[in-house]
Amino acid sequence: MKMIFDTHAHYDDSAFDSDRDELLTKLFSENVACIVNQGTTVELSKCSIALAEQYENMYCAVGIHPECVTENSLSELDEIRQLARHKKAVAIGEIGLDYYWDTPRDLQKAVFEQQLLLAEQLHLPVTIHDREAHGDVLAIIQKYRPKGILHCFSGSVETAREIIRLGMYIGVGGVVTFKNSRKAVDVVADIPLERIVLETDCPYLSPVPFRGKRNDSSMIQYVALKIAEIKHIPVEEVLKTTLENAKRVYQMERCVFQ
What we know:
Blueprint: E1 4-9, H1 20-29, E2 32-38, H2 42-54, E3 58-62, H3 73-83, E4 89-98, H4 105-122, E5 126-131, H5 134-144, E6 148-150, H6 157-165, E7 169-172, H7 182-190, E8 196-198, H8 220-231, H9 235-249
Parallel strand pairs: 1-2, 2-3, 3-4, 4-5, 5-6, 6-7, 7-8
Helix pairs in contact: 2-3, 3-4, 8-9
């Protein structure tokens, strides 16, 4: 049975240019049930839609990533709105705040908030990026109360508890397998499995033992194994529950993956 649901991938990335179709065909023929490819700009959101049209079990999110915001981003949201109406667009994403890079914070916040409003208007969940911006991201989530996923969560146990209290899910990927990932391990140990979804962020953040190599959706099994170890439960339970969680958050409960 196919049980891997990769809630957050970037197969439009140039790292896959040499073997994209071969790889995705192989993944879907083996143990990957579904992949949601995330948009980061208008053009790359269109690429995500194109991939979703090509593969039956590929879906997409459309949005503007905080690293990619420009003075044109607010006017581009009309185009994101139109893209989000595609039948295989299941979320607004990847959106949020990133204070690691020197991108104007006021502009990031404005674009983030407008995309949260767009998601609310279209009754779509969101996938949120938070890098070194925990306080501001949490404050904005508390204000708008979106449905969706806090991707690649790197905050504290206390913040994770508040995120799930607000009805969101925590995205867990390869970082939880790293030797220096004490915070991620603590979060996984503390929060209910019913609020965890699995992700790759591929081609980035490959889990141990593939750290530093190109990530892909098949490697989620190592993330699931680590979660099973932390929670002292069978890995099959992790995969089954997180697949159902992902279907629920992306409003895909009726989907049956062959």
